[in-house]
Amino acid sequence: MGEMDKLRKEAESLKEQITAARKTVQDLTLQDHTAGTSVVGRVQLKIRKTLRGHLAKVYAMQWGGDSRLCVSASQDGKLIVWDSCSTNKVHAIPLKSSWVMTCAYAPSGNMVACGGLDNMCSIYNLKGKDGNVKVMRELAAHTGYLSCCRFLSDSEIITSSGDCTCCLWDIETGTQKTIFAGHLGDCMSLGMAPDYNTFISGACDYTAKLWDIRDGQCRQTFAGHESDINAIGFFPNGNAVITGSDDASCKLYDLRADQELMTYQDSSIMCGVTSLAPSFSGRLLLAGYDDFNCNIWDMLKAERVGTLSGHDNRVSCLGVAADGKACCTGSWDSFLKIWN
Amino acid sequence: MHLSGLLWDLLCCIPLGLIWLLQVNIMSNNMAKIADARKTVEQLKLEVNIDRMMVSKAAAELMAYCEAHAKEDPLVAPVPSSENPFREKKIFCTVL
Question: Mean pLDDT over residues A73-80, rounded?
Answer without folding.
Answer: 97
